[in-house]
């Protein structure tokens, strides 16, 4: 019997996302369909949990991570408010969706957390515009979205949190030390090559590359790029 290939999930990123979504989605559905008795709120809450925890993976210290989730939740709510009145007019909903998605993708060029939030914002627009609903349902939609946003923020900080930027910074430090040692002692060139290769692999597997207008992310990316160029310049 042919063996199935082992799943490729560096650092267990997909597993962590799946556990968070699997734990919190049934909880918001039970709350929305049970005590609240609001199917619209339950729909948007469960959708928001999947989007914010399954498709988005913010990194950084807890304070910056919480700020990113809060900003994404507020931005998604603004888009829901704008799209809901148009949802019963197909042409208007399609036009708004096209313009909003274009603007979101264009903003993703800033990189960093803006790029990471893009998927969540696009899906929020699509759900709000594609599912026809009267304006009277807007309150229930926002209740579900904001409630799930708050729960996603807490879940990201408490359920198997992983701070990839810290690991990335440590990998950069190890590569820099290995290159410095190879310059002093050419016999340690193999260690330097292995360290730089590990840094390159860590960069590729980041959920989003650390660039953009956040100073820490931009600085990390520049240091990593400098080490890559130094590795090519040295006779290792």
Structure report:
- It is a single chain.
- This protein is an all-alpha fold and 236 residues long.
- The protein has 9 helices and no strands.
- The longest helix has 22 residues, at 62-83.
- The protein is elongated.
- The chain starts with 12 loop residues before the first helix and ends with a helix.
- The mean pLDDT is 84.
Summarize the structure.
The protein has 9 helices and no strands. The chain has helices at residues 13-33, 39-55, 62-83, 90-107, 112-130, 138-158, 164-184, 189-204, 215-233.
Total E-strand runs: 0
Radius of gyration: 22 Å
What low-confidence regions span 5 or more consecutive residues with pLDDT below 50? none
> Treating each run of at least 4 consecutive H or I residues as one helix, how many helices?
9
Q: How much of the residues is beta strand, in percent? A: under 5%
Tell me about the largest β-sheet: none
Shape: elongated
Which SSEs are present, and which pair or pack?
Blueprint: H1 13-33, H2 39-55, H3 62-83, H4 90-107, H5 112-130, H6 138-158, H7 164-184, H8 189-204, H9 215-233
Helix pairs in contact: 1-2, 1-6, 2-5, 2-6, 3-5, 3-6, 4-5, 7-8, 7-9, 8-9
Provide keyphrases for this structure.
236 residues; mainly alpha; 9 helices
């Amino acid at each position: 019997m042919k063996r199935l290939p082992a799943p490729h999930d560096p650092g267990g990123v997909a597993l962590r996302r799946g556990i968070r979504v699997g734990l919190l989605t049934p909880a918001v559905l039970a709350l929305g369909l049970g005590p609240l008795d609001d199917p619209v709120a339950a729909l948007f809450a469960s959708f928001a949990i999947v989007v914010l925890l399954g498709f988005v993976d913010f990194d950084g210290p807890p304070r910056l991570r919480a700020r990113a989730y809060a900003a994404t939740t507020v931005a998604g709510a603004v888009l829901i408010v704008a799209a809901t009145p148009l949802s019963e007019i197909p042409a208007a909903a399609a036009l708004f969706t096209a313009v909003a998605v274009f603007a979101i993708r264009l903003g993703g060029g800033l990189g960093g957390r803006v790029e990471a939030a893009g998927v969540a914002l696009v899906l929020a627009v699509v759900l709000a515009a594609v599912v026809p609903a009267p304006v009277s349902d807007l309150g229930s939609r926002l209740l579900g979205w904001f409630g799930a946003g708050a729960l996603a923020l807490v879940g990201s900080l408490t359920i198997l949190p992983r701070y990839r930027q810290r690991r990335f910074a440590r990998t950069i430090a190890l590569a820099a030390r290995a290159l410095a040692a190879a310059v002093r002692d050419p016999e340690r060139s193999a260690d330097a090559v292995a360290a730089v290769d590990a840094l390159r692999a860590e960069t590729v597997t980041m959920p989003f590359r650390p660039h953009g207008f956040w100073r820490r992310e931009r600085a990390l990316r520049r240091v990593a790029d400098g080490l890559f160029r130094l590795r090519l310049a040295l006779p290792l």
